[in-house]
Structure formats: structure tokens, C-alpha cells
Amino acid sequence: MQPPSTVGQLVALVLFLLPGLTYQFLRERLRGPVAGEAQLGERILRAITASVALDGLYVLVAGPVLVEAWRKAERSGPSALALEHPRMIGLWALVLFLGAPAAAAAAVSYRERRRARSAYRPVPTAWDYAFGTRADSGPRFVRARLKDGTWIGGWFGTRSYASGYPQDADLYLQSSYRMGPDGSFGPRVESTDGIYLRMADVDVVELVKSPERNPQ
Asked: Which of 123, 93, 103, 137 has its CA nearest to residue 26?
């Protein structure tokens, strides 16, 4: 397959591919990933199919106008047409490449959401949800049980940090607390400046608003 060698061929390629790419991107954002589109080739094929459908719709709705604009571009050149009617070109570009694909993606996604039994949330992992996007997300106590059975706990506050997708899950707690063998919180560790947890070493993590204190 040869790359486009003229401005007209480049414009035709953009007109053929860009509407479907816009539609596919917005569909994935609104609906979320699905198993049938895990491969890049399948996503590109769906984008091309959407472009064919949208281009066909453009021809049915505004065929004469588009043909006349194309003939003018061939006679005087695309740059001359853009200089002569810059606002019209910009408006058509917004409608054909962004507006119509976005409206189609929103309409199809809305129809599918009404029929679906579950809702899609754009949060990639439960870890990101717990430490970043929950409505009541904020400072709290955190305790974790390591894979060897040892309990570690601390305070997740404004100076703490939790990694986000796609990085490996880890956690920095700004202060450390002594923990009982049953996971109960003891006194704050003196001179603590935080504790680092790598989730690969952790079996269970629990978020605690008001922990029970270890009597020891």
C-alpha cells in the first residue's frame, strides 16, 4: 500500500479514516473495553467499518454539496479553497470528523446502556477506585496483612501516596503504627516518617475509619 502522494489523496484518506477513528475512540471511552476488541487489528477494522457507514451517511445527506466542494478543490487546489472559505472548511471539518461521529457514538452507547444489566465505570482498577475516585475518599487508617501473616498498619493522609494504573500497586503511608497479632492498632511508632508497602508482598489490605486500639 503506497502512502498518499498528493494533497487530494491525503484529504481523501483522512475523510475515509478519521470519522471511524473518532467514533471508535469515543465508543471505547463511553462503553469501556470489551473482549471482542482486545486486538488492535479488530479495533482498526471496526473503525474502518464505522468510517464506511458514516461516509455513506454523509453522501446521502449532503452528497451534492460535498461533490461540488471536491470539484472546486480539484480545479483551484485545496489550499485555495481553504483560503477562500476558511470558516466553511472549518465548520465542515468539525461536523464530519468530530460532531457526527461523536453523536453516533453517544447514541449507540446510550442505547446499549439502557439495555445493559451492568454499568461501566472508567476507573481501571479497584485499587484506583479505593485510593482515588471514591466519593468519600480521604484520610484514613490502613492495615495490611503480609503473606507471612504479619500485620502492618499506618495512616493514609495528605502526605501519603498510592500508585495508579498502569503502574504496579504500591502504597506509602505517612506514619506507621504498632500492630497486634490480630491486626488491631497500637500506639503510633515514635519518630516515624512513613512506611512503604509493595502490594506484591501483601495478602489483604483493609481501609479503616476508626480502628480499635490494641490495649498493650
From this structure: 103
3-state helix, strand, coil in the chain (%, to 5): 50, 20, 30
Give the whole-angstrom CA distance, residue 159 versus residue 165: 20
Residues 32-59, mean pLDDT to the nearest whole number: 76
Q: Comparing C-alpha atoms, which of 102, 108, 109 is closest to residue 23?
A: 102
Kindly state the cell numbers that stand for 27: 465508543
Contact call for residues 3 and 39 (beta carbons, < 8 A): no
Burial of 84 (0-12, 13-18, 19+ CB in 10 A): exposed
Give Dmax (Cα) for the chain.
Answer: 89
Global model pTM greater than 0.85:
no
